[in-house]
Design goal:
Number of strands of chain B: 6
Number of helices of chain A: 23
Largest interface: A-B, 71 and 80 residues
Strand order of the largest sheet of chain B: 4-3-5-6
Number of strands of chain A: 13
Radius of gyration of chain A: 26 Å
Oligomer: heterodimer
Helix content of chain B: 40-55%
Structural class of chain A: alpha/beta
Strand order of the largest sheet of chain A: 1-10-7-4-2-3
Structural class of chain B: alpha/beta
Largest sheet of chain B: 4 strands, parallel
Distance between the termini of chain A: 74 Å
Radius of gyration of chain B: 18 Å
Number of helices of chain B: 14
Strand content of chain B: 5-15%
């Protein structure tokens, strides 16, 4: 089974993905489509002057919830219990998976149906259940494509964004039969036909399953209500048809009141699917006689969230409502795709969330993520809860560097120290510029290449400059720095 | 503040900035104590290593009415990062100085439009030009349409729209070498968009972004020249003022 464990650090993974022209075309097309849809529906509110208000209100709601997190979670637990649900607390992935497996075992089932859920993907629940002999069937169309393809998700909202129709047809034809109802023989890559094949395949499972597994987009403390928003209705099938429902909910999902949902249910669909309102909003409060599951479990999951909460700059990442707008606007994500980030949380939010949840200084893959950005700021601009991702990225880079202080310094650390020291003395900087000016004159005489406008350039720089000149010409250093010119001409006055 | 990249690699940008500001009646000084804003170190995570540079910012610019920077990126760094670096040292004098400099620090087009109140700077540049709004100018500072308003008033200029102008070029400081492949992939798309405009000159407000895009344009033998905004605004080419 496919997992993200042991993925290479971002630069290596990205290099491999950049070579995949089909992937790049699929991504460029899909992200551009979602970007345009989002811009249109957000633009309506921007014109009305309410979008920025909603955005800041969303940020404030989440910050308030996080500020007194323990209180809200305890209230949530009390209300859930009073409504007949069983509440479990899980410190990490292993504990959460064990709880779900134990519920399934109690009911003696060998399969569960699943609502698309980032929390269960994060803890690799499906893999864990498989080890216990329990098949976990994904029922979201894109998750189904990923699962049947023995693939990994590459986007928070559209896990199969990296796949095109022809690839999906191939996956359905090859793999559906192994997992249940086979794809029809005459299946084509027409989207309607593909969706219909998935519908028939999934219906069997909805009708058969005794246990459903979900996450939650929000948990309302004042009433003990869980909320799932989705576009297909398959989630609602899982939430209502099985006898038993287990929901794995990150502790940061709690909001104090129903009023808080008002704001977030306006910004989430606009930011994620580019819709004014999402098609299916399901809410449930414990157990209701004669309606829905007769046994409801809620697993409140930490798995690094309290670690992130303790981070003064980084804690704002816990505001994230998993809308994926940051992925769709990120020029880095658009070119390399989600797999390069080595996590179910890819893109800009993944680049900060993974190091915050998992800690830095231990795993080179995690430590590479804060550097997987040009800090262009497009992610911050679209974030519906105003997470200042670029600032957190820089702060996580600081955390990565600080975690390595006191150990044997890397070449980069030594270079930064040397450059930093040179910047502490204008005279030393001037001397360096003089030396580079001499080198520049030598380059000019060798006449490597000439830039438009007449300046000499290097086509192949020595040492660390190689990474630059593999694809880019580098202008030769000028014969005279600005500093030297200013001194020589008295600021251009002589 | 000329910025270290301009000082060491693009001195003409510094000279153009001085010429432009003097033409508009500004008393320009270059305090020799300045070196760098510290951004290369900070953005790579090396806060302690940025301290010497930030100290030089404090030494060089304390007491000036305005600090004008021909770079959105370095302006952003002085405004938003220098205080964080200073705070870590526990040196409250340094922190106070840096915090007093930050609000008086202006990116060139902000200074021209907001402080001097001009959009027509008396420039002349009879060429086909396309403008790339660099990310830090655009999003971190929010310079908005100031550069465009200034460029539109340049005599003889043929300003053409750059497709997907607001998308990052992929430079990103050390990103250009730490993630060289992704950086080049992004920059190549940017260079393609530039070539699609048919412009002779690509203009932007940050020399480092221009060095990256220009390096790719040159490798692709596109013939497109890169120029800093200050160089075009200082130009009097083809006007009665003679060649620039």
């Amino acid at each position: 089974m496919a997992t993200f464990v042991g993925m290479p650090a971002f630069p290596e993974a990205a290099r491999e993905k950049l070579g995949d022209t089909v992937l790049r075309r699929n991504l460029a097309h899909a992200t551009a489509t979602i970007r345009d849809k989002r811009a249109k529906v957000v633009g309506e509110l921007e014109d009305a002057g309410t979008w920025q208000d909603l955005r800041l209100a969303g940020a404030a709601i989440k910050d308030t919830a996080l500020h007194d997190l323990a209180d809200h979670l305890e209230l949530l637990e009390r209300r859930l219990t009073a409504a007949g649900a069983t509440v479990h607390w899980a410190r990490d992935a292993a504990e959460a998976c064990a709880i779900v497996a134990s519920v399934a075992r109690t009911h003696d089932v060998d399969e569960v149906v699943k609502v698309k859920s980032m929390a269960t993907a994060e803890i690799e629940l499906n893999e864990h259940l498989a080890d216990e002999g329990i098949a976990a069937w994904e029922t979201d169309l894109a998750e189904l494509i990923v699962q049947l393809g023995d693939d990994l998700p590459s986007h928070v909202l559209v896990p199969a964004i990296h796949r095109n129709r022809a690839e999906i047809l191939d996956i359905f034809r090859r793999r559906m039969a192994d997992a249940g109802r086979a794809a029809p023989d005459d299946l084509t890559d027409d989207p309607r036909r593909l969706a219909e094949a998935a519908r028939l395949h999934l219906r069997e499972k909805f009708l058969r399953a005794k246990v459903g597994v979900s996450g939650a987009n929000f948990a309302v403390a004042e009433t003990g209500t869980l909320v799932v928003v989705e576009s297909e209705g398959n989630g609602r099938m899982c939430l209502t048809m099985p006898e038993v429902l287990v929901s794995v909910v990150g502790i940061e999902k709690v909001v104090p009141t129903w009023e808080d949902l008002d704001v977030l249910l306006q910004t989430l669909p606009r930011s994620s699917t580019g819709e004014r309102m999402n098609p299916y909003t399901s809410t449930w409060t414990g157990v209701t006689d004669g309606d829905g599951p007769r046994e409801v479990h809620v697993v409140l999951l930490d798995n690094g969230r309290t670690r992130a909460l303790a981070d003064e700059v980084g804690r704002q990442a816990l505001r994230c409502i998993r809308c994926s707008a940051c992925m769709n606007v990120c020029p880095v994500y658009e070119r390399v795709g989600g797999h390069a980030y080595g996590s179910v949380y890819p893109g800009p939010i993944g680049a900060i969330l993974n190091p915050l949840l998992r800690g830095v200084g231990e795993d080179p893959q995690v430590d590479s993520l804060p550097y997987a950005s040009t800090l262009c700021g497009a992610c911050y601009e679209v974030c519906p809860v105003a997470i200042d991702i670029p600032s957190v990225l820089v702060d996580q880079r600081r955390a990565v560097v600080d975690a390595k202080r006191g150990k044997r310094p890397s070449a980069e650390a030594l270079a930064m120290k040397a450059v930093g020291a040179a910047f502490g003395s204008p005279r030393r900087l001037g001397a360096l510029e003089q030396a580079s000016g001499l080198a520049g004159r030598a380059v000019s005489r060798l006449g490597s290449v000439t830039l438009p406008g007449g300046r000499s350039a290097l086509r192949s720089a020595p040492g660390p400059g190689r990474a630059w000149t593999d694809a880019r010409d580098a202008p030769a250093p000028p014969a005279e720095s600005f500093r030297a010119w200013w001194e020589r001409t008295d600021g251009g006055r002589s | 503040m000329v910025t270290c990249v301009n000082d060491a690699m693009f001195p003409d940008v510094g000279k153009a900035t001085v010429r432009l500001l003097r033409r508009l009646g500004v008393d320009v000084e270059f305090p020799a104590a300045q070196t760098c804003c510290g951004q290369p170190m900070v953005n790579t995570g090396y806060y302690d290593e940025a301290v010497p540079a930030v100290r030089q910012v404090a030494t060089a610019f304390d007491g000036y009415e305005a600090v004008v920077v021909p770079s959105g990126s370095c302006t952003g760094s002085v405004r938003h990062q220098a205080a964080d670096v200073a705070r870590r040292t526990g040196d409250t004098v340094l922190l106070d100085t840096v915090e007093s400099i930050a609000p008086r620090t202006y990116e060139l087009t902000e200074f021209l439009v907001d402080v001097l109140g001009v959009t027509d700077v008396g420039a002349s540049f009879p060429h086909r030009v396309t403008y790339h709004p660099t990310c830090h100018s655009l999003r971190l500072l929010g310079v908005g349409d100031r550069p465009r308003r200034l460029l539109e008033k340049v005599r003889g200029i043929d300003l053409v729209e750059l497709p997907r102008a607001e998308e990052c070029c992929g430079f990103g400081g050390t990103f250009a070498t730490k993630n060289a492949d992704t950086s080049v992939a992004m920059g190549s798309d940017k260079a393609r968009h530039v070539r699609d405009t048919g412009a002779e000159v690509l203009v932007a407000g940050d020399s480092s972004c221009l060095m990256h895009i220009g390096g790719l344009l040159s490798r692709q033998r596109s013939g497109v020249r890169t120029m800093h905004l200050a160089e075009i605004l200082a130009s009097t080419e083809g006007s009665d003022g003679g060649a620039r």
